[in-house]
Design goal:
The complex is a heterodimer of chains A (601) and B (453). Chain A is α+β, with helices and mostly antiparallel strands and 601 residues long. Chain A folds into four domains: 248 residues, FAD/NAD(P)-binding domain (3-Layer(bba) Sandwich), CATH 3.50.50.60; 127 residues, Elongation Factor Tu (Ef-tu), domain 3 (Beta Barrel); 79 residues, Orthogonal Bundle (Arc Repressor Mutant, subunit A); 60 residues, GidA associated domain, C-terminal subdomain (DNA polymerase, domain 1). In chain A, strand 6 and strand 7 form a beta hairpin. Chain A is globular. Chain B is an alpha/beta fold and 453 residues long. Chain B folds into three domains: 141 residues, Probable tRNA modification gtpase trme, domain 1 (Gyrase A, domain 2); 120 residues, tRNA modification GTPase MnmE domain 2 (Four Helix Bundle (Hemerythrin (Met), subunit A), Up-down Bundle); 170 residues, P-loop containing nucleotide triphosphate hydrolases (Rossmann fold, 3-Layer(aba) Sandwich). Helices cover 44% and strands 17% of the residues of chain B. Chain B is built from 13 helices and 13 strands. In chain B, the strands form two sheets. Chain B has a seven-stranded mixed beta sheet with strand order 8-9-10-7-11-12-13, with helices on both faces. Chain B has a six-stranded mixed beta sheet with strand order 3-4-5-2-1-6, covered by helices on one side. In chain B, strand 1 and strand 2 form a beta hairpin. The chains are: A alpha+beta (601), B alpha/beta (453). The interface between A and B is large, with 69 and 55 residues.
């Protein structure tokens, strides 16, 4: 987009450092990374180039719910991204801790740092992660910081509160890290990567040179051929001794002794939670995940805890294969401030403070992919705001990114929000392979990808549509209906695929898969498309920000209160607020028409 | 900007008996709707046509007057279809249900007026009046719905929704958490739960007031000795308004069954074999069946010949008769010529004099039957769930989704499509009691499964 941008970070060496396990993707998240790639984001390519194990989840299920996941080399991931930023034109990276925001009236106009340097900007994007008044717990022990070994951002919260932004607390946790050579892998089960890895970036439309663009700039490139030389993860499990240790020491856990006020995620419970809430489950699965190629450090996926260090040690030693494990870093829980995201417009701009945008954990989300999605949208919209252009808003019917942001700004969240495929009403349309086709119009309208790539995506879309039409209009031999009908009955488990024309077979695998999916699942995809069409009208109607809902004639009071609190951007968003019913939407429609129509008629 | 994409339908005249009832549809698919019901010849705009209304099964529901209005020259400014039927709520409901079954959407309160306004058919100055109207209509609909939802409909639906959410959570867990240490997928559990949700949905649909009347009517059995005038009574009753009657042969050749509309009620009139006190062998079979029928009856019309002494009924029938379910009809009143009737019915059973030949007493009979029908409804108390067509429409769609899901469960169909069917059922439930947030499914999921590596 070419906007002049300054990136301030407390420590340049920890840009893109993965605080939890160094894995990208997974259910719904994998699809999001591909959406980010379709919008010109960097996450997919960075993962492909630094991934050390690739697996496609749900491979036995339908394409819509298949998700790529990769284990990354933590340091390589972080350094490559730092390098990419350094070489990005129009971007200036500077190390500084922002201590407060600078306001002029109800607008933000810049930031001040701990060295008392003031930077001014038309728009500001705040991405504080877990650092905003971060407080780490290990048993009764407390340390300030957003991540073990890092600092805490203490004064920024006060600055936000002063500006009228409400803050609450959330909690998350991370397991211990172990030294690989102290582990006995022969007692564990190996989990290998896929022989043919599913990558995240759309290499078929990206510029091949762009793949290595860090190199192209004449710099040293860190990485390896995507998907080559994969490493394994290892599976083990807790034992009755582990359970006993947890139960005996529950009162020492920060979580259970009332030390923590923040709310933790249900989908990522601590080991204490697992033994308490699922007492009848005899054991819990654990994954040993390597943190990189050039390190012997292992992440123990599934053993997140806030028990004191001595208990952690005993607990680890009660696990098969970990009897002699050396801890490199202890597990801990971390509490941090977040700003309930219902205080935002769908552009991710604050409704309280103009020109101030929020992205990532400050909005109550959890996960690298959720954060990256918001960072991308907030960044694009901060530029649009400067240029007084319409913001980029992705619909719930277009992408997981759309579902994410709509959920956040419409419903808010009580726990760290993570994406699940079940959150999307139109999940079947969100297969990971279609991300570029789904988001093409946005990428184009907001100049998010290069013109050569755009041309390739458009060509891919043309080819996809051409072949779909081809199969739906060409008759199969022997009176089985169209070729599409044969493909469908084959997809749903009966009979062979028809013979394909050579021109089709010579297309790229990605394109063929997309066409086969769209034809094979046509009935179900059409059902979702019909629902989208039904709602399309109200999704497009914008609610003038000047409407005072309390004064609208005929709106029920409880509904008016809810609308005033959320200030929906479109009628579609309004319709998703609980307690707003169809007749309220009818009334708003009439009101909007009357207020527009005055000028028109 | 406000172009409608779907076609809506509603009753345009108030519920209840009236001279005519109008069902109105508006939206882009009106032409297709008209073609599907009334045949391929296009209806001339703004001209009332007298024609038969054939439902999806091809049965004639009524002869109607249909008028097509081509947009923008219509009330709503869109293509619009008005179907005027005889003013019996039973018929207009049949028509409405048939159009809903064809995939059209029940209009929201005030939606026709809203569409009229949005397509510029009304003056801007009327905006506030339109908003008031939508408000008033929706308040009334809401009040009615709330009343039902607070009652047994809400309770039943709430239970079904929770059970369905539980099934869905079990399906979703394996989609969203493939890498977790979940117990092996238990499709058997899902199948059983789903079967119970389906049964519940069917039960709810079966208690749907109009649905019940449609399929069953109030089972009214005519009993009596041979030649007391049972058949004449039936013919006289049915002839009461022949236009409203469709004749169906009895399910067994021993019975004649007719449907009859009386006020807001539908009666299933069943004429039985005469109860001969000294029957031949062949007649015995018929009498046994009569006894069976009488045992199932909601209402028994016991016909006596007023000029003869009251016969003794079989012991298998007599104890069942009471003032709430039986009307004694003293037929052939015209033959008495001012003498008191010879027949003396047992005490405690209401009796009406009438003549199937002259029609005397039939007005009173109709009123009395209506009174009984009303009482019969009240008797059912809590179990009567008077859901409206909108609700029934949603329940039917839920049932459809559940049945498709069940097939997929049995055939090991793709799990994400199974989920898609379950969600369509859940959405349909949500249309009745309010949208169901995905968060509630997640609550079930996290309660049932230990998620989190």
């Amino acid at each position: 987009m070419g906007a002049s941008t300054l990136l301030l970070t407390g420590n340049i060496d920890t840009i893109a450092q993965m605080s939890c396990n160094p894995a990208i993707g997974g259910q719904a998240k994998g699809q999001m990374v591909r959406e980010i790639d379709a919008l010109g984001g960097e996450m997919g390519i960075n993962t492909d180039l630094t991934g050390i194990q690739f697996r496609l989840l749900n491979e036995s299920k339908g394409p819509a719910v298949q998700s790529p996941r990769a284990q990354c080399d933590k340091k390589a991931y972080q350094f490559r991204l730092k390098h990419t930023l350094e070489l990005q034109s129009n971007l200036q990276v500077f190390q500084a801790t922002v201590t407060e925001l600078v306001f002029t009236g109800q607008k933000v106009t810049g930031v001040r740092t701990n060295l008392d340097i003031e930077f001014s900007g038309v728009t500001v994007v705040v991405t504080t992660g877990t650092f905003l008044r971060g407080l780490m717990h290990i048993g009764q022990n407390k340390n300030e910081g957003g991540r073990l070994g890092d600092f805490s951002s203490k004064t920024l919260s006060a600055s936000l509160i002063k500006a009228g932004v409400k803050l609450h607390r959330l909690k998350t946790g991370t397991p211990p890290r172990l030294l690989g050579r102290s582990l006995n892998f022969s007692k564990m089960e190996e989990q290998r990567g896929d022989a043919s890895p599913t990558l995240f970036a759309f290499h078929d439309t990206r510029d091949p040179a762009g793949l290595f663009h860090v190199e192209q700039n004449g710099e040293q490139y860190i990485g390896w051929q995507p998907g080559s030389h994969q490493v394994s993860c290892w599976m083990t499990h807790t034992t009755p001794e582990t359970a006993q240790l947890v139960r005996d020491n529950l009162h020492k856990s920060a979580m259970y002794s009332g030390e923590i006020e923040g709310v933790g995620p249900r989908y990522c419970p601590s080991i204490e939670d697992k033994f308490v809430r699922f007492a009848d489950k005899p054991r819990h699965l654990l994954f040993l995940e390597p943190e990189g190629r050039s390190t012997n450090e292992y992440y123990v996926n599934g053993l997140s805890t806030s028990l004191p260090f001595d208990i952690q040690l005993e607990m680890v030693h009660s696990i098969p294969g970990l009897e002699n494990a050396q801890l490199l870093r202890p597990a801990y829980a971390v509490e941090y401030d977040f700003a309930p995201p219902t205080q935002l417009y769908p552009s991710l701009e604050s409704r309280k403070v103009e020109n101030l945008f929020f992205a990532g954990q400050i909005n109550g989300t959890s996960g690298y992919e959720e954060a990256a999605s918001q960072g991308l949208i907030a960044g694009v919209n901060a530029v649009h705001k400067v240029r007084r252009e319409e913001p980029l808003i992705i619909g719930r019917h277009e992408a997981y990114i759309g579902v994410l942001i709509d959920d956040l700004v419409t419903k808010g969240t009580n726990e760290p929000y993570r994406m699940f495929t079940s959150r999307a009403e139109y999940r079947l349309l969100f297969n990971h392979g279609s991300a570029e086709l789904r988001l093409l119009h946005h990428a184009k309208a907001h100049s998010l990808v290069s013109s050569t790539r755009l041309a390739r995506i458009e060509e891919k879309k043309r080819q996809t549509d051409y072949w779909i039409t081809f199969f739906e209009t060409h008759k199969a031999p022997a009176g089985q209906g169209t070729l599409g009908d044969v493909i469908r009955s084959s997809t749903m488990g009966g009979g062979a695929m028809p013979e394909f024309p050579v021109e089709f077979s010579s297309q790229s695998e990605a394109l063929r898969q997309e066409v086969m999916y769209r034809v094979g699942y046509q009935g179900y995809l059409a059902r979702e498309q019909r629902q989208i069409k039904k709602l399309s009208q109200i999704e497009k109607i914008k609610i003038p920000p000047s409407i005072d809902f309390m004064q609208v004639r005929g709106l029920r009071k409880e509904c008016a209160i809810k609308l005033s609190a959320t200030k929906p951007y479109t009628l579609g968003q309004a319709s998703r607020i609980s307690g707003v019913n169809p007749s309220d939407i009818s009334i708003l429609m009439v009101l909007i028409e009357a207020s527009r129509g005055g000028a028109k008629r | 900007m406000f172009r409608s994409t779907d076609t809506i339908v509603a009753l345009a005249t108030p519920m209840g008996a009236s001279a005519i009832a109008v069902v109105r549809a508006s939206g882009p698919d009106c032409t297709a709707l008209a073609a599907a019901i009334f045949g391929p010849t296009p209806l001339p705009p703004r001209l009332a046509c007298h024609t038969d209304y054939r439902d999806l099964k091809g049965l004639i529901l009524d002869d109607v007057l249909v008028t097509f209005f081509k947009g923008p020259h219509s009330y709503t400014g869109e293509d619009l279809l008005e179907i005027s039927s005889h003013g019996n709520p039973f018929i207009s409901q049949l028509i409405l249900n048939d159009i809903l079954a064809r995939g059209f959407r029940a209009a929201e309160p005030g939606e026709f007026t809203r569409r009229a306004f949005l397509s510029g058919r009304m003056d801007l100055s009327q905006a506030e009046a339109v908003m008031d109207l939508i408000y008033a209509r929706s308040e009334r609909a809401l009040a009615a719905a709330n009343q039902q939802l607070r009652g047994s409909l809400g309770r039943h639906l709430g239970k079904l929704t929770e059970n369905l959410l539980r099934v869905l959570a079990h399906v979703e867990a394996y989609i969203d958490f493939p890498d977790e240490d979940l117990p092996p997928e238990d499709r058997h559990f899902a199948q059983e739960e789903l079967a119970s949700v389906l049964r519940g949905t069917e039960r709810l649909l079966a208690t749907h007031h109009y649905g019940e009347l449609l399929r069953e009517g109030i089972k009214t059995v005519i009993i009596g000795e041979p030649n007391v005038g049972k058949s004449s009574l039936l013919n006289r009753l049915v002839g009461y308004d022949r236009a409203l009657v469709s004749t169906e042969p009895g399910t067994t050749r021993d019975f004649i069954e007719e449907r009859l509309i009386l006020g807001p009620h539908c009666l299933r009139l069943i004429d039985t074999a005469g109860l001969n006190s000294s029957p031949a062998v062949i007649e015995k079979l018929g009498i046994e069946k009569t006894v069976e029928r009488a045992a199932e009856a909601d209402l028994i019309l016991w016909v006596l010949d007023a000029t003869l002494p009251c016969p003794t009924l079989p012991t298998s029938i007599m104890p069942r008769l009471n003032s709430a379910n039986t009307l004694v009809l003293l037929n052939k009143h015209d033959l008495l010529a001012d003498h008191p009737p010879t027949a003396k019915p047992p005490e405690g059973l209401p009796a009406l004099p009438l003549s199937a030949l002259t029609g005397e007493g039939f007005e009173t009979l109709a009123t009395t039957i209506i009174q009984h029908a009303e009482a019969f409804r009240l008797d059912r108390g809590e179990d009567v769930i008077a859901i409206n067509s909108r609700h029934a429409d949603a329940l039917r769609r839920a049932r459809e989704g559940l049945i498709t899901a069940q097939t997929k469960l049995i055939n090991q169909g793709p799990v994400e499509l199974l989920s898609s069917d379950l969600r369509s059922a859940l959405d349909a439930f949500g249309e009745i009691a309010g949208k169901i947030d995905n968060e509630r499914m997640l609550d079930h999921l996290f309660a049932a499964f230990c998620i989190g590596k």
